[in-house]
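fwd from M.: "can u put these together and see what the complex looks like"

so here's what she sent:
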Amino acid sequence: MFDKLSDRLGGVFDRLRGRGALNEADVREAMREVRVALLEADVALPVVREFVDKATEKAVGQSVLKSVTPGQQVVKIVNDALVEMLGAEQSDLNLAVAPPAIIMMVGLQGSGKTTTTAKIAKMLKAKQGKKVLMASLDVNRPAAQEQLATLGTQTEVATLPIVQGQQPVDIAKRAMQAAKLQGFDVLLLDTAGRLHVDQQLMDEMQAVAKVSAPQEILLVVDSLTGQDAVNVAKNFGERVDLTGIVLTRMDGDARGGAALSMRAITGKPIKFAGVGEKLDALEAFNPERVAGRILGMGDVVGLVERAAEIVDKDEADKLAAKMAKGQFDMDDLRTQFRQMTKMGGLGALAGMMPGMKKAKAAMDASGMNDKLLIHMDAIIGSMTPKERAKPELLNAKRKIRIAKGSGMTVQDVNKLIKMHQEMATAMKRIRKMGGLKGLAAMFG
Ligand code: GDP
Ligand code: MG
């Protein structure tokens, strides 16, 4: 149900074909669909509004690419705006201070703070050779401190010995002292969460931040957080100086809308993504991947980029004009074959477009493959210009000559002729869409 943004946009934009630029009214209409996609991906409403305004501004006035549908083009524009907003820059942890560098983890209960603490500790130890100490300041949940100790044993990272009855601020002070005395490079402070933002939690968190003055305060957020993301981001962001965000459970089926909400509301970079319960399931945040996920698209973006690059605009214009007259000859078919080959072949096309998967299966079943594209190209090459323009001239004698000339069989020649006929018929039916989309529709 999700991966239909380009289809939806296709309808909006069909009538836009042949015009020079994306105009405001059409873009606004398309953005209504983008808005739905963002809300389905759980992006918070105020963020959706802000984003749509920005993307609209970018899209209006862009000249229409002939080789992709305007819908696909808008998806690309929206995608680029998403990537930009999610933060194209890679941001590492800031540990460049006199040791110990202190990293404080904050967030709601169950968001994944304790797990992420252990993951970051493990990563710093393994990849940067850091000497790391972890301390749990969670005195609310029974066994929370033991949970971190267990993770410490699993990752072979030191944890602060547990002293019963101590309050979070005192544990933080003890941890800092231990880290300093024992020469740790990094101290990770895992704090307590609540089910919802509340005053006591915020006060406690502020007090800990004040005594420990961390280099990094990372807000840990479950990627399934929906509209509540606004409250979480605002409340935490207003009370402490967040330096970054960690999104957990990106291995689940969340569409990643929380990433956009968090980023937009706090203005802080998303530094990591949690992608599983295992302690090495932590990745650097990848804005491109998350943007694709939010829009629910295959790599339409890559397709549009390649199409814009490769497909000759004049050629596309010529073909569009011919199709408008209901003509589609062998030369046109060859042009289509070549464009498909240039774009990486049928498999690449199928991989890039969600709707092409079914089409690819149908092509496989009918023996259509990349080698065949080349063979068909060779057969067309053995035809005279007259034959190419008027395929109905192809009688038995001509077919034998062409088969010989191209090193193929008469059967192959017949196959091509049949393909051309089917395509010409399909092209007539769908000529207002044209180009690649026409091909996809024919094979689908
Ligand atoms: P805390 O209350 O914020 O400290 O949350 P925990 O670290 O105790 O995590 C709560 C649950 O979420 C645990 O069962 C974790 O294994 C799980 N969890 C944390 N991060 C991830 C993640 O990235 N992916 C998945 N699938 N589970 C996670
Ligand atoms: Mg915890």
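replying to her w this: The chain has a mean pLDDT of 82.
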